Amino acid sequence: MTRLTGKHALLTGAAGGIGLAVATAYLHEGAQCTVADIGKSPRPELAALMASHPDTLLYVPTDVTRSADIDALITAASSRFGAITTLYNNAAIFDMAPLLESDEAMYDKIFAVNVKGAFFIMQKVLAHMVAQQVQGGAVVNMASQAGRRGEALVSHYCASKAAIISYTQSAALAMAPHKIRVNGIAPGVIATPMWKHVDALFAKYENLPIGEKKKRVGEAVPLGYMGDPTDICGAAIFLASDEASYITAQTLNVDGGSVMS
């Protein structure tokens, strides 16, 4: 359990769900972790993790849509644990509506977090890595199977995650001369707390009973079930580790076989 020993990982969107699972896994693999989320104080699950890792885990409230917040996050992280060697770029939001009913406010909100926020935290952390001459630097961007194909009710979210896949490729090529790797993960349907909100939206727009959409999407996965947040951890550890030292510009599908590429 020492594959990330000596690394300092910065994780966004890490107060719960996949982000919290990956932060826990990174700590268990020996990393020092700075975790960021929108809340002024950590949620109970994260607070409990902090209590058990007081010397290796720092929480910094951060709105990734605000450049000043990103700068403050990087400063706080590097002041506590030194140069950032790993970015797990996970902060994102979800919403949906029929294409002809989707308004500008929904578009602006989704793209502000999922694209603008993700890009500029990646850019600023990469600039930090270059300035600090980080050896073995790695970025893991969180995309989605939604970024692989459009969906009638989920146009903005799908487009935002497609942008993450594209930015991952571009950033990987830009950072290759610095020997900093940039990869992504495209999860499939994962049973996070957010799915209660997602299921309710599908119930509204597809006239389904609550819980039916979640049941159907799980059954549609080739492996036959929805994933758990911990199912993302193996890929997240691998891509952050030196074991993936010759892998860059890739987005790995972790989706039970839903997308083949």
TrEMBL record:
SUPFAM superfamilies, sorted: NAD(P)-binding Rossmann-fold domains
Pfam family, one: adh_short_C2
Domain Ketoreductase stretches: 7-198
Family, similarity comment: Belongs to the short-chain dehydrogenases/reductases (SDR) family.
GO molecular function: oxidoreductase activity
Keywords from the named record: Oxidoreductase
Protein name, UniProt field: L-iditol 2-dehydrogenase
PROSITE patterns recorded: ADH_SHORT (PS00061)
InterPro entries: KR_dom (IPR057326), NAD(P)-bd_dom_sf (IPR036291), Sc_DH/Rdtase_CS (IPR020904), SDR_fam (IPR002347)
Top-level taxon in the UniProt lineage: Bacteria
